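Hello forum,

I keep getting stuck at the same step: I have a sequence, I want structure tokens, and every attempt I make locally crashes halfway through. Rather than fight my setup again tonight, could one of you with a working pipeline run this one for me? It's a single chain of 274 residues.
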Amino acid sequence: MGHPDDETRFAFGENWAHFLRGLNEERIAEAERSLVEMVGSEAVAGRTWLDAGSGSGLFSLAAARLGAARLHSFDYDPHSVACTRELRSRAGVAEDRWTVERGDVLDGPYVAGLGSFDLVYSWGVLHHTGDLWTAFDLAASAVAPGGLLFVAIYNDQGWRSRAWAVAKRTYNRLPAPLRLPYAIAVMGPRELAGFAKQTLQGHPGAYVRRWTEYQSARGMSRWHDIIDWIGGYPFEVATPALVVERARAAGFVPERQVLAGRGLGCNQFVFRRA
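Reply #2:
Ran it on my machine without issues. Output:
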């Protein structure tokens, strides 16, 4: 099934392939820690897991190491599928326990054919499909009764979000050699402003640690997240209230939220199917 704006869609999988080159045990452990912090270890160990938009495969790997009984990971991007398979291979997890394939969260028959799962995980994915709410509803439909839906969706910042949408679309329309200079031109002033602010406050080391210790945020890489941010298109946003309203309409109740406030980034939600 095709996605809207495929001609300007960001190559998420290629970015994740670069990320895997630097993936180490410390980053994997941080991913496990952040997952347990949000849903609890009892929601993963011995449970079934669906990763709707697996990206690098890092969090499916974390779930496997935390004892998930059966895992199914899919992604629209074939490079992301390859990344997830690579992590499954590195971890030595059997294919009959952890299945990985190309799939589309906007493809209703495909999602319905997967069955139901104790935990459906889709972090930072649904807002990149080009049809956020259809993707949300279909991901939610795969949650078993009493199961959990863990999603992260970009925060709606009003006009700022609209401006970012233009910047992201521009990045993907540029010839490949111009994309890195463009990313530096757009994100560089933000990074310099952050460094200047910390320096004026007498804490220049705090800015440096934002890079050197970034893996403590879900085991991710700051540089790859920056490229993912400036290139991440299609791009949609939602207020927390809209996300909660949609979840309630689908028969879910909120269990945990971590919100971005007025800032950039994702609001995180854990919902339970009533």
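The beta strands are 48-52, 70-75, 98-102, 117-123, 143-154, 252-258, 266-273. If your local run keeps crashing, start a new thread with the error log.
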